[in-house]
Amino acid sequence: MKDKEPSYKKHLVNCPHCGKEILDHMDKCPFCEGEIKGTYREINPKTLKKIKIVLWAVLGAVAVTLIVLKATGVI
Ligand SMILES: [Zn+2]
User: Fold this and answer.
1) Could you tell me which residue, 2 or 33, shows the higher pLDDT?
2) Ligand 1 centroid from CA 8, angstroms
């Protein structure tokens, strides 16, 4: 059984500056005051662009589906 492990354990990451365990939502290390670059807080522009493309693709697909459904008289 792993329920002895505290739930915050899975949010622990190692500080890139001092190597101590810190929580992954922290943007500053409490031990060495080093700045932590969040793994999901900071979205890099390339990823953002990809997300945007996917969103537009999904939106387009939904629109096309609706148009087709309307044209064929389903809705
Ligand atoms: Zn540190």
Assistant:
1) 33
2) 18
Compute the distance between CA of residue 17 and CA of residue 24 in angstroms, rounded to an integer: 14
Please give the distance, rounded to the nearest whole angstrom, from the Cα atom of residue 54 to the centre of ligand 1. 37
For residue 27, give Cα distances in angstroms to 12, 31, 38, 40, 43: 13, 12, 6, 11, 14
The 3 state secondary structure assigned to 26-37 is CCECCCCCCECC
On whether the pTM is more than 0.85, the answer is no
Nearest to 18 by CA among 45, 36, 38: 36
Between CA 20 and CA 30 the distance in angstroms is 9
